[in-house]
Amino acid sequence: MSLYLGLTGNIASGKSTVAKMFESLGCYTIDADEISRIVMKKGEKAYFKIIEAFGEKILDENGEIDRGKLKEIVFNDDSKRVVLEQIVHPAIRDYERKLVSEIKGRDSQAIILTQAALIIEKKSFDRFDGIILVYVDRKSQLERLLKRDGIDKELAEKIIASQMPYEEKVKYANFIIDNSKDLEHLKSEVNRVYNVLKIHLYTKKQIKKVDKGILYKFFG
Ligand SMILES: CC(C)(COP(=O)(O)OP(=O)(O)OC[C@H]1O[C@@H](n2cnc3c(N)ncnc32)[C@H](O)[C@@H]1O)[C@@H](O)C(=O)NCCC(=O)NCCS
Ligand SMILES: Nc1ncnc2c1ncn2[C@@H]1O[C@H](COP(=O)(O)OP(=O)(O)OP(=O)(O)O)[C@@H](O)[C@H]1O
């Protein structure tokens, strides 16, 4: 039996950083943002649909989709973001499904984590055995986002506002990983969850809706 987890959290919460830590423990990870880059490449089905919906002005000098331009558009207009999601999400899901079944075919004891920001917003959690939520406090989130992406504060605030707040998200999580402190602390959080996952893997015990002692540690 393998385990298949959704690894989610709001922008710049540390999903990629956490995924790398799980990888170093032997888990398989899949990144929905990376897949979105693959399925939107020049010549792919989603590429043409995006041009049809947004016009050629969103292309760069090489004819590829300019993600910066698209980002400005969709985070300033909710209806446009919905249009983009309707094009890209089904393509991401199809691609991801194939990767998961490939991994499961290769390794029957695999722990697979799909990293995606919108699992809870889109209520697309039924396919997973459990949800891991990476939590970051608002101040660190904004600081890390501005530092990493070099975008202006106004756009950063809009992206943050487009996502479901943590107070709501925690209700859907089986595990919470706190990433409000340093990387050492993050590593201990990842190890803690990994050890519980291993127990579930070997005992074949289903992950309950709420794994007590972990969930609500930060939210009372
Ligand atoms: C808007 C786009 C072009 C910006 O590309 P860019 O390379 O700058 O960012 P990247 O794809 O790495 O996403 C970074 C983060 O932005 C946030 N984000 C991206 N899309 C969305 C969205 N539709 N709603 C809310 N937040 C989003 C997520 O936290 C994500 O992890 C791109 O994010 C995109 O195509 N989004 C639509 C697909 C999508 O929903 N992806 C996110 C989850 S699968
Ligand atoms: N505990 C930490 N202390 C300091 N910086 C951190 C910490 N965790 C992550 N970071 C940094 O914060 C930024 C955001 O982290 P990361 O890219 O892992 O987040 P993400 O959730 O994958 O982002 P996105 O939502 O855009 O996909 C990165 O530059 C990362 O190096």
Give a verbal description of the structure.
The structure is a single chain. This protein has 220 residues and is of the alpha/beta class. It has a single domain (3-203), classed as P-loop containing nucleotide triphosphate hydrolases (Rossmann fold), CATH 3.40.50. The chain has helices at 15-24, 32-39, 45-54, 67-74, 78-106, 138-149, 153-161, 166-169, 183-203; strands spanning 3-9, 28-31, 111-115, 130-135, 175-178. The protein has a five-stranded parallel β-sheet, with helices on both faces. The protein is globular and about 55 Å long. The protein starts with a strand and ends in a 17-residue tail after the last helix. Adenosine-5'-triphosphate (ATP) is lined by residues 9, 11-17, 33, 117, 144, 148, 179, 182-183, 186.
